[in-house]
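Q: Hi! First time asking for a complex rather than a single chain. Here are the components, and I think there are three in total. Is that enough to go on?
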Amino acid sequence: MNRRILLLLPLAAAAVIAAGCGGASDASTGDGGASNGSTKLSLVAYSTPQVVYDDAIPAFQKTAAGKDIGFDQSYGASGDQSRAVAGGLGADVVEFSLEPDMKRLVDAGLVAPSWNQNAHKGFVSDSVIALVVRKGNPKGIHDWNDLLKPGIEVITPNPFTSGSAKWNLLGAFVHGGLPFVKALLTQHVKVQPKSGREATQAFISGQGDVLISYENEAITAQQKGEKVDYVIPPDNILIQNPIAVTKDSKHPQQAQAFVNYLWSAAGQKLFGKHGYRPVDPAVAKQFHFPTPSNLKTIDDLGGWDKIDTQFFDPDKGSIAQIEKDAGVSTAK
Amino acid sequence: MLSRWGLRGAVLVYLGALLLVPTGLVFYRTFEHGLGAFWDSVTTPAAQHAFQLTLELAAIAVPLNTIFGIAMALALVRGRWRGKALVEAIIDLPFAVSPVIIGLSLLLVFGREGWIHLPFQVMFALPGMALATIFVSLPFVVREVVPVLREVGDEQEQAAATLGATGWQTFRRITLPSLRWGVAYGVVLSVARAIGEFGAVSVVSGHIAGKTDTLTLLVQERFENFDVRGAYAASALLAAIALATLFTMTLTRRRTA
Amino acid sequence: MLASRPLSRRAAGNGAGLGLGLGTLWLSLIVLLPLAAVVAKSTDGGWSAFWHAVSSRQAVDALELTLGASLLVAAISAVMGTATAWVLVRDEGIPGPVRSVFNAVIDLPFALPTIVAGITLLALYKDVAFTRTAIVLALLFVTLPFVVRAVQPVLLELDREMEEAAASLGASALTTFRRIILPNLLPAIVSGAALAFARAVGEFGSVVLFSGNIPFKSQVASVFIFSQVESDNTAGAASVSVVLLAISVVVLLGIRRVGRSHA
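A: Yes, that's all I need. Here is the structure of the assembled complex.
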């Protein structure tokens, strides 16, 4: 009997110590949002813009509209976050990596269908596909075709476990259609990690020669000291990240004020600072992002509904078929 | 003689390659930049909160599963009823259920469109995370107590009964003490499992920074934000808690043997 | 003597009865209720949708890979786990402190978050990464403690008399092991292997990064299930999970029966 108490004592002691320990540096994740204030807004976003919000939230709190507003922040994979909100995770402001994750919430009745009826069509930031390579670009990658050079190993996340990964293959599609995607997937992709960030981690820890990712991801990696370079291929697709205030938000005005701040010049500048392309053209000009010569949008390709059905339907989609062939040809 | 070295060698290589080298690497990566950097990493408010939450979840899950474990072990060993094999298989199931499914199942039961609606928040809050932690650490105490109970036999209890002890007295004074090492070992294993759980808790946590992040979730978050050093620091903290429980385990197991 | 038996049976019976009541209540609330929800979800689209989800080529490949790898891991774990337990318990040649260290670290796979395991294995064993071997390696890591910890206590309790008798009758070490020691260890080995199998089936975190996750080739069932959830095909995910769990229960029951018949 007393042995069990002995066992629990160290745990209890540790808990007490943890509670009383003096705080040290605040550099770690999620510590940015101050929790003072009478209003609490819940921000649920996908993982990569956390660096932006670490700046944007304090900046917003310094404005008149943002005084006395505290924030709860949640970051994770775009699909996971979207499903969490659909499953009951409280949110006032939601931002995702791609539109279908927002549509899920519209279908669930949690976001108004009019979410994209505004000047920016509901998007708060843009990006484009980047081919991330080792510092110095030792393999001489300058365009999509270089990915098919013999021996080049490509990392791209699995589009069926990561919605955001669909952008990557769509970029490849813009370049060379389905045959190119097929050649890429069947011959040069040895690993398709579960999510974008996992893919980045795999690449950084030494796997592969090229990582298909987004410009903002590459810039963030560089800003955090990772030794990578990146190439923006001319055939590209515009990645648009949607943002919205939820329907059942208890503080809709304050939530909208925050979103408006993100759309303001000050907010957009913060996005630009961290490698995202501002949706505000005037601010975008200040950042000199290179313009790919053949930049398509989702609408050019027919819209998400069409793409999801045609390419990414797990049974009948053409990319699903290519994945099947990739597995079959190299299986067993 | 040769075969003994062969066996020894094979085992040492197996353990070394699979266990010692990887965990050694974790500790090396943690401390290669010095103790100060490590300390800073584990004392940020986020890390402190994660540490507290991790211990809290273990403090909820383990005692409850211990009571269950002893109760179920008694039923399995001393009781007379059919279907024991099936129940034992169900008890083992939590291992086989992938964390995605655990999260999904809790969502289906307690989520926004779930079966059960309680007046307080279950999903994406402490109760949901506790349920997930209880789920994954369920089997341990049972599995450790059953063999001990089988070995111990019930002669002492019978003797106590003839001397007029009530059921509860017998249980408290004779049964329970005889089980204490099996229970202790099961408890320590459950603690290790509870603090190390990632997948299931990840799905039901909602990732609310500073509120629903456990140490394992913090590890992943830090990896994902290119704070590899911080990630390894948090992992080392987890490993340290585990080693502390392991140390206790080695003590208790020596007694069981 | 006769007078005491009804009392004792009552005492034991009460304990067992209450235990069963509490136990099944808890088991139902924590395990059966959520799993029932999954089963219910899997029937959302009726039998045809269930069958369709479960029999797709990708699902079947993922299930085959998972079950195959898990059985292999259970088998390897059974052998190496027993060997490890043997060395830890019986090998006099290893100094005490060394033995204690090895003994203590065996349980680390329980507590280290799986993502750390994945990243570390990826860093260490780059050449094997993204192959089926990688999956087996990662699963061996997470299931390491099971067989060892099951066999150790039994080995410690084992009565040496029979072994000594056999030796004095001229039996070789191998024969003694095969005919006298092994039968006594088998239930524990089998029990540990069953747990290792179950754990391998459910593993998600450590495997993914290391395994390659190429559908049809190196994608384990748990990740395939996740991909169904990501595609908003929750019913399909539930269906595959139900099948996976059902097969696991059958294997677990079978393994226990084997153990019981040799006890």
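A: Chain C touches chain B through 97 residues (CB under 8 Å). Let me know if you'd like any chain examined more closely.
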